């Protein structure tokens, strides 16, 4: 028996809760998630007397409970056509509303250096929305000017990428993972092209590409008596990836600041690992019987071109109410060697051409034999074709 996720709708105060028609969900439901950006559900419900109570709850700011998570209806559009009413609904994860309601009115004045946990804990301290945070991995320390006087939602938009972090939300809890931690995780599943996944598409994005940054290490304490307003650092240099500049052009980024470093060699190695000096490669595919987990690391193997890579899940669209609707999943790996798949595909094409060339040589030789006096009969033709078939 197929087990579907539980989905109900309730009023804003959760005083009334109803189920929605499964048939409509099987046709129209879609859950979409993109790391650090969105998590929402959409669906369309046709008006019916059997589900009148549930349909009456289809209103903005009411709550969708789905698969253990809460979503707030942000949009609800009613369309009447041919005497039939249809409601189209978009609901965003409850966390985004809570994060917008968490506001830190205090300000830490000046340009100061923060770790992720320090900055987040300041932003959500004593919040009345029940938001809590966990941190997994080692995060860089960055400089922030006048932290505060904004919402936690705005803080996430402005600074998460600068901390090289990805986050996963579970109702009111947010868990941050460092990029280094995710890259070091072993692949917990292996996906084979034309077995687990289909229609693999590779796209490149240079939006966040950076190949030259100023690196700032531990700040030098100049004492309270100095008149200089210019900060000084034990490590202060320009990191530049010449190969990336040659391939993609000069792309300067914001300063990379981390108080952990007191020597240039160590910080150069850190910059090389942190700076996104290659286009981000995103693999999009449709999946068969795949359990989707946010920020999961998997190994993707394409035997047909003798190529494999390790990638992290950073987005998906799925309808778990319809077993015949294949989910679309997106994998991203900032350190993915873009040339690897291009070389693999080129080698595959070359092998195909070489094989085709060999077959043509054999075919021409066979035709030459026939033209040089062989008796042409149906049996002879079949034998020649069989010989060519054995080559392939």
What does this structure look like?
With 392 residues, this protein is of the alpha+beta class. It contains ten helices and 21 strands. The protein is globular, with a radius of gyration of 29 Å. The protein starts with 6 loop residues before the first strand and ends with a helix. Mean pLDDT is 79; it is low at 334-356, 373-378 and 388-392.
List keywords for this structure.
392 residues, alpha+beta, 13-stranded mixed β-sheet, three-stranded mixed β-sheet, 10 helices, 36% strand
Which spans of ≥5 residues are poorly predicted at pLDDT below 50?
334-356, 373-378, 388-392
Structural class: alpha+beta
Largest sheet: 13 strands, mixed
Helix content: 25-40%
Spatial separation of the terminal alpha carbons:
45 Å
Number of H/I helices: 10
| Strands, count | 21
The backbone outline, from C-alpha atoms, is: globular
Structure, briefly:
The protein is α+β, with helices and mostly antiparallel strands and 392 residues long. It has helices at residues 22-28, 52-56, 94-101, 116-124, 152-159, 179-184, 242-248, 264-274, 338-371, 378-391, and strands at residues 7-10, 17-19, 30-34, 38-46, 63-66, 69-81, 84-93, 103-114, 132-136, 142-151, 165-170, 173-178, 190-192, 197-205, 212-216, 236-240, 256-257, 280-287, 297-302, 307-318, 328-333.
């Amino acid at each position: 028996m197929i087990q579907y996720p539980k989905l109900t709708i309730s009023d804003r105060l959760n005083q009334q809760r109803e189920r929605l028609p499964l048939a409509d969900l099987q046709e129209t439901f879609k859950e979409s998630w993109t790391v650090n950006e969105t998590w929402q559900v959409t669906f369309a419900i046709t008006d019916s007397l059997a589900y009148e109570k549930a349909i009456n709850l289809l209103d903005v700011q009411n709550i969708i409970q789905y698969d253990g998570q809460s979503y707030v209806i942000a949009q609800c559009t009613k369309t009447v056509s041919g005497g039939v009413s249809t409601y189209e609904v978009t609901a965003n994860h409850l966390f985004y509303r809570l994060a917008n309601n968490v506001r830190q009115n205090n300000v830490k004045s000046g340009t100061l250096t923060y770790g992720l946990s320090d900055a987040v804990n300041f932003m959500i301290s004593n919040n009345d929305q029940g938001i809590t945070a966990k941190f997994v991995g080692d995060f860089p320390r960055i400089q922030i000017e006048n932290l505060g006087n904004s919402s936690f939602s705005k803080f996430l938009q402005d600074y998460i990428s600068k901390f090289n972090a990805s986050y996963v939300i579970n109702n009111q809890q947010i868990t941050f993972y460092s990029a280094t931690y995710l890259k070091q995780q072993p692949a917990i599943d292996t996906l084979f092209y034309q077995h687990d996944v289909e229609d693999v598409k590779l796209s490149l994005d240079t939006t966040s590409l950076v190949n030259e940054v100023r690196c700032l290490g531990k700040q030098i304490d100049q004492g309270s008596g100095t008149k200089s307003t210019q900060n000084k650092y034990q490590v202060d240099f320009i990191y530049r990836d010449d190969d990336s500049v040659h391939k993609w052009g000069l792309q300067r980024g914001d300063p990379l600041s981390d108080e952990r470093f007191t020597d240039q060699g160590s910080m150069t190695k850190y910059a090389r690992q942190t700076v996104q000096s290659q286009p981000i490669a995103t693999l999009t595919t449709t999946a068969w019987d795949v359990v989707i987990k946010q920020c999961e690391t998997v190994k993707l193997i394409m035997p047909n071109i003798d190529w494999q890579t390790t990638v992290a899940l950073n987005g998906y669209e799925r309808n778990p109410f319809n077993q015949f609707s294949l989910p679309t999943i997106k994998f991203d790996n900032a350190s993915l060697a873009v040339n690897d798949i291009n070389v693999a595909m080129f080698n595959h094409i070359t092998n195909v051409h070489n094989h085709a060339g060999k077959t043509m040589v054999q075919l021409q030789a066979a035709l030459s034999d026939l033209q040089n006096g062989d008796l042409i009969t149906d049996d002879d033709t079949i034998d020649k074709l069989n010989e060519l078939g054995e080559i392939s």
